[in-house]
Amino acid sequence: MKKTVIHATAGTLAMLLVTCFWTSTLVSELFFDDLTVTYVKQVIAKYGLVCLVLAMAATGGSGFALSKGRTGRLIEEKQKRMPFLGANGVLIMIPAAIYLSVKATAGQFDSLFYVVQAVELIVGLVQLTLLGKNFKAGLRLSGRLCPNCTQ
To answer: Which UniProt key words apply to this protein (predicted)?
Structure first.
């Protein structure tokens, strides 16, 4: 039971953090000045990434422990998505967040900044989609969502 609570809490927190980062980035870019964009980028890089990495590690570790000895389509689908979530995070999202924070702090809002920003937003949507699918599969596995529901 304890692993289930940890897994659900950490997974929910990870999804909320990615949603918060994505939304605050988009809103600051579209409606606010460079100072606000810089602040958002700094907060994400300095504090948000630590929280997200810890939440993802707790989600992955508890999910691995919960899946021991279990088989089935939903477990396999969740396990197949995890390497993509991890690779996107480590290879794209974390470096992009740090790069954008450094560039914003230096006041360098050039074309490369916006290319990296666009990539970060696109990959962020991919992350949210994968996390959402894992979330839904977890609800089905726990019996909180109809196992045969397609929506």
So the answer is: Membrane, Transmembrane, Transmembrane helix
| pTM for the whole structure | 0.89
Helix, strand, coil distribution of the chain in percent, nearest 5: 85, 0, 15
Cβ-contact 104, 71 below 8 angstroms: no
Could you give the CA distance from residue 52 to residue 13 in angstroms, rounded to a whole number? 8
CA distance linking residue 130 with residue 127, whole number of Å: 5
- The rounded distance, in Å, linking the Cα atoms of 100 and 44 is 10
Write out pLDDT tens, residues 79-135: 899 899 999 999 999 999 999 999 999 999 999 999 999 999 999 999 999 999 999
Where helices occur in 68-149 by DSSP H, the ranges are: 73-87, 94-105, 111-142
